[in-house]
Design a protein that fits this description.
Number of strands: 10
Strand content: over 45%
CATH topology: Jelly Rolls
Largest sheet: 8 strands, antiparallel
CATH class: Mainly Beta
Mean pLDDT: 96
Number of domains: 1
Radius of gyration: 13 Å
Number of helices: 0
Order of helices and strands: EEEEEEEEEE
Oligomer: single chain
Low-confidence stretches: none
Helix content: under 10%
Shape: globular
């Protein structure tokens, strides 16, 4: 099995700098498929995408939230954010957190919203 390297993923959308990314399908023309790893308490800020976004939780404990709902998630949970839906996600204060995210290739993240 090939280990996929983690690369630093520093971006103003995150509340901290302890974030890495692993690109899973760099050759895909149709989808962005990456693992994002959040350090304890790090999350992203409220944002939208111009395509649907699927999150597949792979480890740790995290929070996913919209403007009207917030819930704790863990490995095995699958989340769908609809195109244009305002949301955020990231680690709880006491756990690191990782998820695979899938969006349409070329889609844009809009932040701030």
């Amino acid at each position: 099995m090939t280990q996929i390297p983690k690369e630093s993923f520093i971006n103003p959308i995150f509340t901290g700098t302890d974030v890495t990314r692993q690109v899973l399908l760099p050759e895909s023309k149709d989808f962005n498929v990456n693992i994002v790893n959040f350090g304890k308490g790090v999350r992203n800020k409220l944002h939208t995408h111009d395509s649907d976004q699927v999150l597949i939780i792979t480890s740790g404990k995290g929070i996913v939230a919209t403007e009207t709902e917030e819930r704790v998630v863990s490995a095995g949970d699958v989340i769908l954010f609809q195109e244009g839906e305002k949301h955020w996600h990231g680690a709880t204060e006491d756990s690191e957190f990782s998820h695979i995210y899938i969006t349409r290739s070329g889609s844009q993240t809009k932040f701030p919203v």
